[in-house]
Design a protein that fits this description.
With 305 residues, the chain is α/β, with parallel strands linked by helices. It is built from nine helices and 13 strands. The strands form four sheets. Strands 5-4-1-8-9 form a five-stranded parallel β-sheet, sandwiched between helices. Strands 10-11-12-13 form a four-stranded antiparallel β-sheet, with helices on one face. Helix 5 packs across helix 6. The longest helix has 33 residues. The two termini are 34 Å apart.
Length: 305
């Protein structure tokens, strides 16, 4: 099971831009904003794919879909009026021809489903539904009545309302329920400031906060330290000698394949080593203790002796 679950908010999985005061979205593929790319690139570049799961709540997914559909219709209509105005202005001195591959709204909906599925597959993201039981409903009502985050006070018609932010509250309860059921640490990547006061979930609004958070959750700093320790000739020599060999020029390869915290508070790590000794490939399982800088070989196998 992954050590950490990462959830992306609507404002992170969709990108918008404007041209000449017209708000536009990308309609040929699902384009997330820069923060999404920064987070997923950090995960890939640090080899953390096996340690994390990426999630998008069904509510965020449907909200993004609705935004795309609304923007498609509005921007397509504005484009047609723009062309009509220029044809009127230039008359027979201008010949403009264009074609939308998705001419009807139904065609666009079908195309949208295709590019949504492509996005989920390409980014290894899973959709997660919101809780539909009475317990969740009662919790939402209680938070709404007591104005707990992410519910917020809003004014309308001269009255104060404390139920603004219902969608955000449902997304948050989805993450809370997932944390409870899976036992996984949860990070919510969002640029929405209404989540700053919530408890129990790590909120990350930029890549710097995300890096600090994921480092703390997965113990990456300790892992990096352990990896560097295995560059030491003393550690390498100890390991090679415990396999019945000598740490000399016969060792052509010494590579740390994997590091897993066992009891991080005690400084204990399981480390997997690949070594090539006299052209034989050794797969070595070690237990490393950071405080004493000691290592013990627990098991090893030889592939092509």
């Amino acid at each position: 099971m992954a050590n950490c679950s990462i959830f992306f908010d609507t404002n992170v999985i969709e990108a918008q831009f404007s041209h000449d005061k017209v708000n536009l979205m990308f309609h040929n593929r699902i384009v997330p904003n820069q923060l999404f790319h920064e987070v997923t690139n950090y995960i890939k570049n640090n080899g953390l794919e096996a340690k994390v799961n990426l999630f998008i709540s069904c509510i965020s997914w449907e909200e993004m879909s609705l935004h795309l559909k609304e923007n498609y219709k509005v921007s397509k209509d504005k484009f047609a009026k723009f062309i009509e105005a220029f044809n009127k202005a230039y008359g027979d001195t201008l010949d403009i021809s264009y074609d939308f591959k998705n001419n009807s709204f139904e065609e666009y909906n079908n195309y949208l489903e295709t590019i949504k599925n492509e996005f989920l597959t390409a980014n290894n993201c899973k959709l997660i539904d919101f809780p539909r039981d009475v317990e969740c409903f009662e919790q939402l009502v209680d938070k709404c009545v007591h104005k707990q985050a992410p519910f917020q006070k809003a004014k309308a018609g001269g009255k104060d309302f404390s139920d603004a932010g219902f969608k955000d509250a449902v997304i948050f309860e989805t993450i809370v329920r997932h944390k409870r059921d899976s036992g996984s640490a949860c990070i919510f990547v969002t640029t929405d400031g209404d989540f700053r006061e919530v408890e129990g979930i790590h909120i990350c609004s930029n890549i710097g906060v995300f890096q600090e958070t994921i480092t703390q959750i997965l113990g990456l700093q300790n892992i990096d330290t352990v990896r560097n320790r295995f560059n030491d000739d003393y550690i390498r020599g100890t390991i090679i000698e415990e396999t019945g060999n000598v740490y000399d020029e016969s060792v052509s390869t010494f590579e740390v394949l994997d590091i897993n915290p066992i009891a991080e508070e005690d400084g204990l790590f399981d480390v997997t080593i690949k070594a090539i000794i006299n052209e034989a490939i050794y797969n070595i399982k070690c237990r490393y203790e950071t405080y004493s800088n000691s290592v013990d070989v627990e098991d090893y196998s030889i592939k092509n002796e």
